[in-house]
Amino acid sequence: MIEKLFKLKTHKTNVRTEIVAGIITFLTMSYILIVNPSILGATGMDKAALFTTTALATIVGTLLMALLANLPIAQGPGMGLNNFFAFTVVLTMGYSWQFALTAVFIEGLIFILLTFFNVRELIVNSIPQSLKDAIPVGIGLFITLIGMQNAGIIVGNPNTLVSLGDLSNHNVWIAVIGLIVTGILFVKNIHGAILIGIVIATVASIIMGDVHIPEGSLISMPPSIAPIFCQFEWKQVFTFDMLIVVFTFLFVNLFDTVGTLIGVASKAGLIDSKGNFPQVKKALFADALGTTCGAVLGTSTVTSYIESASGVASGGKTGLTAVSTAFMFFIALFLAPVFLMVPAAATAPALIIVGLFMISAVVKIDFSDMTESLPAFLTIVIMPFSYSIAQGIVFGFLSYVFMKVFTGQAKKVSVTVFVIAFLFLVKMIMNALHII
Question: Whose C-alpha in 15, 230, 300, 426 is 20 to 30 A from the C-alpha of 101?
Fold first, then answer.
């Protein structure tokens, strides 16, 4: 049955290799069980429930990828997208987390339709490459800033906006220890480096007396997801802000998912000689269904994880790798007390390291062409400086269109980009006039 379902012989692999690869993928991305509840918990959502939901959404999304597309790719709540959910939609724009969950649910439904009609591929092809490359870089810097704030490394300052935090603060040193350890482990190619770094930072926090080991058994039934399950808010569905939020979720997830799928599939040898990826539509369906189910469960957008490349590098080539990863997350469900005792300072290194990974796309940007580099640069810097992923995308699109149009290169701008930029411009004007 396993052979019939996953075609192991066709992919020149075996059960043992696939299972080990799945465990390695789990080790490299299991930090999300700690980081996602920490980030979304800032909105007032129940952190214990978020732990369970994060695991369940990852299990569902990963199994969908395994069974629908037969790919060794794990899915889970995306790190950049959960930051947008918490710190932009809720804490900056002032909407409730129920509003944000509704936007994620709508995004999932739209993705299902767009995938069915092959629109997602068309949208990807129409967006300027410079902006595609700039968005993950900006999100990477934004995530890094969040991590440093959580650790107290960077703090607010009324005179200089931000400054270095108090070095006598235990949290600063806990984060520094975790960051150095994680970096060293990556250099030595140790699988699960991020998770090990978090564990060591947590142990350091326990030694310093900032965290206490929970009483009773460390193994327990998962916390209930009732506080966040199906908590949608429909009264503002037809507002312009909902449109902007849904579009941003759609846009960021679109390129994050496609980039990850192509990158991991290429590494696994699943791209044919013509550069085609036969399973892409099934993979995109798995992504869309994962996001929709994730919203119902109570978490931000579910997306494909680049950490899946670690399992592929270990020999994983089929959906059995993803099944193995999902099973490991199922086991983790019963270790909630262990994961929930981890302090924010211990998760800060994970955010900083993920930020580092995300800025690598900056080398792809053509800085010799001002009409490409300026919009990309604005996209990158506006995100952390305005504390908003959405604003970075707005400035990127608008500056791209203006630079191309006023330098006689309007023909290089697609109709899709013109429409998106126009919507953003209308939004900014209405904000300036206090209409919305």
Answer: 426
